[in-house]
């Protein structure tokens, strides 16, 4: 199966960490397909070398952005450029078929059967299920399609200012035409769906094949304690009601990626003998302390609020997750609905 490949994209060293976890998870589950990473010049040389240890091909592409090419000048969203870089995946014509996967995904089993699907196969987006999520999709590389996509972007733009909007408009028959192009949700389970539909997660979550850490906070933004095998401060983050997936990501990172980063001098080994990552970005550091962690900040004490106020706070992301909106309470409520 040398003419088929999994493909991912990383435009900077943070996303490379995600790509490395994804690549090593695909290897762990013994894919028989090639692994390809698209990178842009912002990726540092050492990180690129580490990528070459995990991926069969590491290919440098230019960032597609509105300043880059006259073709894209019509697009006014500055962040559009970065995700449009994904379109380069259609240029990989050395392969007959590929599965693109965001760098913030990881596999929990072998998913080579996806190569039996046709372009464009993808799973529904959890926010708008008549759109597919562009974090995992099956496609056929083709320069013709690549050019048509660029032209389409120029003429029509993208309704979300990024690749997912563009691809959904381009492959517009996805929602209605051919069910075989609808991948089951377990091939792109957004980690946020765990708390937005907990009963479904309880019923089907164990079958998850691909987890997607969709959203602005990525696994590498958390701090992980490899002694206790847990995330630091997770109790205070309302988004982590089920830390299992994040812990899996970090376990893979610590076991398979960190040793490579050490070998390439990107992280240093701690004097305690435990790996201590000193990575480039301040936000994405991992630390391991030999002493007890500092005491956690006290939970905010909110005055008693009306259900309307509570709803508004919830919608603004200010859930009282240590009190009224605690995971246990939500679970109890869901359980009563289920009975
Ligand atoms: N990406 C990247 N650099 C960036 C932003 C995105 O390389 O600065 C790539 C990466 O592969 C990432 C994908 O584009 O997984 C889509 O972005 P992201 O996963 O952050 O979007 P989300 O899935 O959270 O909507
Ligand atoms: C989505 C997808 C991601 C895509 C982004 C921008 O949330 O998960 O892959 O890059 O939208 O369209
Ligand atoms: Mn993503």
What's the SSE blueprint?
Elements: E1 4-10, H1 13-28, E2 34-39, H2 45-54, E3 57-60, H3 80-84, E4 97-101, E5 105-107, E6 121-124, E7 132-139, H4 143-156, H5 163-170, E8 189-190, H6 193-196, H7 198-204, E9 210-212, E10 224-225, E11 230-231, H8 244-263, E12 268-269, E13 275-276, H9 307-315, H10 327-338
Parallel strand pairs: 1-2, 1-4, 2-3, 8-9
Antiparallel strand pairs: 4-7, 5-9, 6-7, 10-11, 12-13
Helix pairs in contact: 1-2, 1-8
Bound molecules: uridine-5'-diphosphate, alpha-D-glucopyranose and manganese (II) ion.
Manganese (II) ion binds next to loops.
What's the short story on this structure?
The chain has 339 residues and is of the alpha/beta class. It has 10 helices and 13 strands. The strands form 4 sheets. The protein has a 6-stranded mixed beta sheet, sandwiched between helices. A 3-stranded mixed beta sheet has the order 5-9-8.
Q: What structural keywords apply?
A:
EC 2.4.1.186; binds uridine-5'-diphosphate; glycogenin glucosyltransferase; 13 strands; Glyco_trans_8; alpha/beta; three-stranded mixed β-sheet; six-stranded mixed β-sheet; binds manganese (II) ion; binds alpha-D-glucopyranose; 339 residues; Spore Coat Polysaccharide Biosynthesis Protein SpsA, Chain A; glycogen biosynthesis; Nucleotide-diphossugar_trans
Note down, in words, how this protein is organized:
InterPro entries: Glyco_trans_8 (IPR002495), GNT1/Glycosyltrans_8 (IPR050587), Nucleotide-diphossugar_trans (IPR029044). Pfam families: Glyco_transf_8. Residues 287-315 are annotated as: Disordered. The protein is of the alpha/beta class and 339 residues long. The chain folds into two domains: 4-185, Spore Coat Polysaccharide Biosynthesis Protein SpsA, Chain A; 282-338, no CATH class. Helices cover 31% and strands 15% of the residues. It has helices at 13-28, 45-54, 80-84, 143-156, 163-170, 193-196, 198-204, 244-263, 307-315, 327-338; strands at residues 4-10, 34-39, 57-60, 97-101, 105-107, 121-124, 132-139, 189-190, 210-212, 224-225, 230-231, 268-269, 275-276. A six-stranded mixed beta sheet has the order 3-2-1-4-7-6, sandwiched between helices. Strands 5-9-8 form a three-stranded mixed beta sheet. It starts with a strand and ends with a helix. Alpha-D-glucopyranose (GLC) binds next to strand 7 and helix 5. Uridine-5'-diphosphate is lined by residues 8-12, 15, 82-83, 86, 102-104, 135, 214-215.
């Amino acid at each position: 199966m040398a003419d088929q490949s999994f493909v991912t994209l990383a435009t900077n060293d943070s996303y490379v960490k995600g790509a490395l976890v994804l690549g090593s998870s695909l290897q762990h589950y013994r894919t028989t397909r090639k692994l390809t990473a698209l990178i842009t010049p912002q990726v540092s040389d050492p990180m690129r070398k580490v990528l070459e240890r995990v991926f069969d091909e590491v290919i440098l592409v230019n960032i597609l952005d509105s300043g880059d090419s006259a073709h894209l000048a019509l697009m006014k969203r500055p962040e559009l450029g970065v995700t449009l870089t994904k379109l380069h995946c259609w240029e990989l014509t050395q392969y007959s078929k590929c599965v693109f996967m965001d760098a913030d995904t990881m596999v929990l089993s072998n998913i080579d059967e996806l190569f039996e699907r046709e372009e464009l196969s993808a799973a529904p987006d959890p926010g708008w299920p008549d759109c597919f999520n562009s974090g995992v999709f099956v496609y056929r590389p083709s320069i013709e399609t690549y050019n048509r996509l660029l032209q389409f972007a120029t003429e029509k733009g993208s309704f979300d200012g990024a690749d997912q909007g563009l691809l959904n408009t381009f492959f517009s028959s996805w929602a209605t035409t051919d069910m075989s192009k609808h991948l089951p949700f377990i091939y792109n389970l957004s980690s946020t769906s765990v708390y937005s539909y907990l009963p479904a997660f309880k019923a089907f979550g164990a079958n998850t094949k691909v987890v997607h850490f969709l959203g602005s906070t990525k696994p590498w933004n958390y701090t992980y304690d490899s002694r206790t095998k847990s995330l630091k401060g997770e109790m205070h983050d309302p988004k982590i009601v089920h830390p299992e997936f994040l812990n899996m990501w970090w376990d893979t990172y610590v076991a398979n990626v960190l040793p490579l980063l050490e070998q390439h001098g990107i992280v240093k080994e701690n004097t305690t003998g435990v790996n201590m990552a000193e990575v480039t970005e301040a936000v994405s550091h991992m630390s391991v302390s030999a002493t007890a962690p500092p005491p956690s900040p006290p939970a905010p004490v909110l005055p008693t609020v009306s259900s309307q106020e509570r709803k508004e706070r919830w919608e603004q992301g200010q859930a009282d997750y240590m009190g009224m909106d605690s995971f246990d309470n939500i679970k109890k409520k869901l359980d009563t609905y289920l009975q």
